[in-house]
Amino acid sequence: MRRIDISQPEFRYDPADPEGFRAGMFRFGAELGARRTGTSVYELPPGQSVCPYHYEHGEEEWLLVLTGTASVRTPEGVEQLGPHEAAFFPVGPDGAHQVRNDTDATVRVLMWGEVVTPTVSVYPDSDKIGIFTGDKRDDLLVERSSGVDYFHGEGG
């Protein structure tokens, strides 16, 4: 049996992440052998978010607050979740969410969900769509307004 202690995670921070999205990430699902479930612990310094407000077309997601108080934005508004409180985000617009730290203390959350490839994420605030194929060379983020007709560029 593979196991890991998530009480002492080694967080990775991406220096390319912009202000407001500088969260530490400790991915361990794949490390334990999971292929269909992604699992990560995030460390959110004050004022930071896990990622932009979004929803998935292919993957359900879960959230469990480990420490601190997380602000969770959904279509119903913003709610505060404390330690040991969980939330579920279904597929589609009803599952839109953003996890943020609006406090002065560090927040840690556990997030997990299905790993579906390919999948599509929608970012309502910036009007983007992300297509994630499992091969970074074919992944794509576009503004919805850049869409073209189905037969655009096709010969007849």
Question: What would you say this structure looks like, in words?
Answer:
It contains no helices and 12 strands. The chain is globular. The protein has 156 residues and is an all-beta fold. It has a 5-stranded antiparallel sheet with strand order 1-2-9-4-7, with no helix packed on it. A 4-stranded antiparallel sheet has the order 3-10-11-12, with no helix packed on it.
Per-chain topology:
Elements: E1 24-27, E2 37-44, E3 55-56, E4 61-67, E5 70-74, E6 77-81, E7 86-89, E8 98-100, E9 107-114, E10 119-123, E11 128-132, E12 140-143
Antiparallel strand pairs: 1-2, 2-9, 3-10, 4-7, 4-9, 5-6, 5-8, 10-11, 11-12
User: How many individual β-strands?
Assistant: 12
**Helical run tally:** 0
Strand order of the largest sheet: 1-2-9-4-7
Give a short account of the largest sheet: 5 strands, antiparallel
Helix content range of the residues, please? under 10%
Which CATH first-tier class of the domain at 24-116 would you pick? Answer: Mainly Beta
Overall residue-averaged pLDDT value: 96
* CATH topological fold name of the domain at 24-116: Jelly Rolls
Distance between the termini: 58 Å
What would you say the CATH architecture of the domain at 24-116 is? Sandwich
Radius of gyration: 17 Å
Morphology: globular
Poorly predicted ranges: none
SS class: mainly beta
CATH superfamily caption of the domain at 24-116: Jelly Rolls
Instruction: Write the element-wise H/E pattern from the N-terminal end onward.
Output: EEEEEEEEEEEE
Tell me the strand percentage band: 35-45%
